[in-house]
Structure formats: C-alpha cells, structure tokens
Amino acid sequence: MHLHSRPKILLIYTGGTIGMRKDFETGALKAFNFSKLLDSIPELQLLDCEIDAFSFENPIDSSNMNPEHWAEMARTIENNYEKFDGFVVLHGSDTMSYSASALSFMFENLSKPIIFTGSQLPIGDLRTDAKENLITAIQIASLQENGRPLIKEVCLYFEYKLYRGNRTTKINAEHFRAFISPNYPFLVESGVHLTINSELLLPANEEASLKVHTHLDSNTAIIKMFPGINEKVLTAILNVEGLKGVVLETYGAGNAPTEEWFLKFLQDGISRGLHIVNVTQCAIGSVSMGHYETSTTMKNLGIISGKDITTEAAITKLMYLLGQNTPQEDFKNVFETSLRGEMQ
Ligand code: ASP
Description:
Layout: E1 8-15, E2 20-22, E3 29-31, H1 34-39, E4 50-60, H2 67-80, E5 86-90, H3 96-106, E6 107-108, E7 114-117, H4 130-142, E8 144-145, E9 148-149, E10 154-158, E11 161-164, E12 169-170, E13 179-180, E14 188-190, E15 194-196, E16 211-212, E17 220-224, H5 231-238, E18 245-250, H6 260-271, E19 275-280, H7 293-301, E20 304-305, H8 311-323, H9 328-335
Parallel strand pairs: 1-4, 1-5, 5-7, 7-10, 17-18, 18-19, 19-20
Antiparallel strand pairs: 2-3, 6-16, 8-9, 10-11, 11-14, 12-13, 14-15
Helix pairs in contact: 2-3, 3-8, 5-6
The structure holds aspartic acid (ASP).
Aspartic acid binds at residues 15-17, 61-63, 92-94, 118, 120.
C-alpha cells in the first residue's frame, strides 16, 4: 500500500499581536516567547500536516518592520524551501501588506505557498481571532493537487478570506476583518467548506527554478497629494541625496495640479533620473493618465502609471526594481508590467 506523506509546513514567527502578552508594569502589549505560544494551541496537533516552527530571535511589533527583516524572512524560506511544502508567516497586521508585497517580488518562480497571517487579539485572549486565522492559514498552505501545492504565491489570510498578498491593504484597526483586496477578488473563502477560486490563482512556471532576491533599495519616498501641498516641501524632497524613486499618491484616476511650479517639480525630478510612479489615493480603481487634462502632462513627461496597484505594492516594487539595478530605459516598461499579479 502506498501511503501519502503529510504536507510539511514551516511556521515562521516574526512577532505581532498574535504572540503578544501584556507587560505587567506598563500594561502595553509586547512580543512573547513563541514556543510557549504554540503549546497553548493543542488544536495544531489535530491538523493533517507536519508542522515545524522557527522564530525570529527578537520578535517585533510589525511597526518596526524593515527591508532587513524581509531579507531575513526570505532567507529563512529559501534555506528551507526543499524541506517544506508550504510556509505560514505570523506577522503583525500593521505592516503585513507591505511585507507580503515585498516578499512577492523577492520570490521569483515560486511554486509553494507563503501565507501571511496574524490577529487583532493575542492568541491567549478569550475572544481571540488568532486561532481561526492560524489554523485555516496552515490548512490552506497544506492544500495539494496531484501531490503538489495548490497555492504557489504569496498570500495573506485574515478573517475567513485568503487574498493575494500584494493586492491587500489594512483598512481597520479594530474589526477582525482588517484587510481588503480592493482591486482583485479573494482567492479562497473559509466557510463550512473552503471555497477555492482556482481561476484566480497565479500559475507557477514549473520549469523555471526559484530565484530569491534579497537586495532591496529603499532610497524611495511616498508623497501624498493634498490641496495646499507646499512647493518648498516638494522641492526639499527632490533634493534628498540619493533619492531614486517616488510613489506619488494622486487624486481619482491619477490626477494632480496643472500649476506650473508642480509640473516643473515633476520635470526636474525626471531630468535627474528619478522614477516617479503615479498611484491613486482612492482605495478602489485605477490610474488612467490622459483621461483628464490634469493627468495628460504627467503622461507626456513619462511618469510611470501604477494602474490599480496598492501603495504598499508600489513602494516595495520600486525598492525591488531599484535593488535589481533595472536599466533606466527599461524601468517604466518593467514597472508597468505585472510581475506577480500585483496590477492589471
Ligand atoms: N501592532 C501590531 C503589529 O503590527 C498589530 C498587530 O499585530 O495586529 O505588530
């Protein structure tokens, strides 16, 4: 008789509320010992998979997340890639969409799931959302088809939904439903059964071998437009030494002022070789430069269209492409191409 071996899942604990406890002195939540945390979830023993765990030496609140931590996560997964069928990353919800986006770009030709999850309440709390998030994330990471992982991309699981990670954004600091994927439908829904929208999953290029890119260049900035934005502030940003890329959050379908000083600011930036990406401040919808007069000049100047990308995915894609030393003349084209399903 041929016995199927159970999928092997690596749990990576980076920190976040899920594993926090109240500090007796200050009353504030802080990261806690991970192995103790696992002991408090006996349900994990009942899952039909083998689970191994790895913890960051110093678990963090995800507000302290940075590209070095992303590189550490990526190396941990890369070093264990052959030994495991799927990876579940426990992470604070505050910057989870940034991390999921960053890792999606860092892993080229992924053929196994990397699923981010966390919770709004600590796992030890009576009303915690952590158990459902953790258990279902592990179950989804274990899904197989013809002996191969079903999910082959970086995802985010929260409150009964699995989303493509680089399509998500955190919208609620209080509700258990903390994330949305404004411009791409959810991939899996957890109800009585797991409903899988197979046609929405990223296909893997089975022939190509995995490439992990851990070098990101964070000489970048995000500028959010608002009526009354100050010329001096923008000029000062332009003069920041070493700045290579800017995500410009514009209005509506990618519109911005047509005042001369503002267009000169963009023109100066472009002449200095700065990559400027136009994304919309609206939660839903896409940039469409040239649709209004207020975006036509930007189009003519060669501003990059972020289309329907989230700000989280735009800034991390910028860091990734800069880290890859993408040639100046190709940059706009490459940015405007969907690399990991992050834009239309
Ligand atoms: N501040 C926490 C963090 O992002 C919030 C959470 O875990 O949900 O680490």
